[in-house]
């Protein structure tokens, strides 16, 4: 069922205004478990987008050999080694797992552990979702202690639902999003032109921003950074998901205005996210 559209006016009502005396610790302390050798860029894009959408403190968990790339790519973020990652998850206001994570088998157990132990909001994307599918974690996700947001594209949705991509593509997208909610009990962000956000409460929303210029590598990694950042800043998980997709689409629209749909890159989207946030706050 389609309950409504996600509009800029709605986003304006849920984004937090900053108190004059606010400090970075009040603006969301987030952890991004992302990136691997050959896909460090996904972690860089995710980190930049999180900062451009207002996260106060960003920490990125990567293999140690990637520290120099991450620290050059996102100097504002701190890095932590992903080797035997065992942090106090509760220190973070939101956690993301997945962009460019890679296929290392131990990530399945990591996701299971965070889902079981963490009390904040967890955003699962990309290889986080692929690991969940490969390790049959759907039931673990259903029982997660944390609030869970998943952001699959149709290929990742198919893997979670144990379907072929073509089979998933034949479904009505609202219905497919609903199937994903039933399978995982998560807030589902089913990406694509007109991204859908579907909730365990049975509501479903369609985004109104964005354009085909966003069909470019890394644009989903940017979205994960934005949603995690907004969650960390205290938006309800459903508002973080809905506002995140709308803000991301607006960044794409502002970027396409300036650069055209063909020239727009995911890196541009991270910068445009700042302008999108500014525009939304101006109303
Ligand atoms: N710079 C970096 O570090 C970057 C790193 N990245 C990282 O790469 C990893 C792999 O992620 P991925 O999404 O690229 O590949 P995958 O999960 O195999 O999915 C593709 C499959 O799904 C199908 N498909 C059908 N419809 C689709 C749709 N609408 N949107 C998308 N796919 C659609 C598609 O069909 P086809 O294109 O063949 O028609 C194909 O069969 C992941 O960790 C990610 O974070 C990227 O973020 C890029 C920048
Ligand atoms: N034609 C389109 N119109 C609007 N948005 C799009 C279009 N194509 C892709 N996008 C958006 O771009 C992002 C792509 O995410 P994803 O497929 O995960 O890319 P990547 O893994 O390369 O970062 C999603 O947010 C999706 O909604
Ligand atoms: Mg992706």
UniProtKB/TrEMBL annotation:
(6S)-NADPHX binds at residues 42, 100, 153, 221. The keyword Secreted does not apply. InterPro entries: Carbohydrate_kinase_pred_CS, CARKD, Ribokinase-like. Its EC number is 4.2.1.136. Homotetramer. Belongs to the NnrD/CARKD family. This is ADP-dependent (S)-NAD(P)H-hydrate dehydratase. It comes from Aminipila butyrica.
């Amino acid at each position: 069922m389609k309950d409504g559209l996600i509009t800029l006016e709605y986003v304006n009502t849920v984004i937090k205004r900053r108190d004059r005396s606010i400090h970075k610790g009040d603006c969301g302390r987030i952890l991004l478990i992302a990136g691997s050798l050959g896909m460090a860029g996904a972690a860089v894009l995710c980190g930049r987008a999180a900062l451009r959408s207002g996260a106060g403190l960003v920490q990125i968990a990567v293999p140690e050999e990637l520290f120099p790339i991450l620290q050059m790519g996102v100097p504002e973020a701190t890095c932590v080694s992903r080797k035997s990652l065992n942090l106090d998850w509760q220190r973070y206001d939101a956690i993301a797992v997945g962009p460019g994570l890679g296929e290392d088998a131990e990530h399945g157990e990591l996701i299971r552990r965070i889902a079981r132990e963490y009390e904040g909001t967890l955003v699962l994307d990309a290889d986080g979702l692929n690991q969940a599918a490969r390790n049959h974690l759907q039931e673990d996700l259903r029982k997660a202690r944390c609030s869970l947001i998943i952001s699959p594209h149709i290929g990742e949705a198919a893997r979670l639902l144990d379907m072929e991509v073509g089979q998933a593509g034949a479904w009505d997208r609202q219905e497919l999003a609903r199937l994903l909610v039933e399978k995982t009990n998560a807030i589902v962000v089913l990406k694509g032109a007109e991204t859908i956000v579907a909730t365990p409460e049975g509501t479903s929303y369609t985004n109104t921003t964005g354009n085909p210029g966003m069909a470019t590598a890394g644009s989903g990694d940017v979205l994960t950074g934005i949603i995690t950042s907004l969650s960390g800043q205290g938006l309800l998980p459903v508002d973080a998901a809905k506002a995140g997709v709308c803000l991301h689409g607006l960044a794409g629209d502002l970027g396409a205005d300036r650069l055209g749909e063909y020239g727009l890159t995911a890196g541009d989207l991270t910068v445009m996210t700042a302008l999108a946030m500014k525009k939304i706050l101006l109303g």
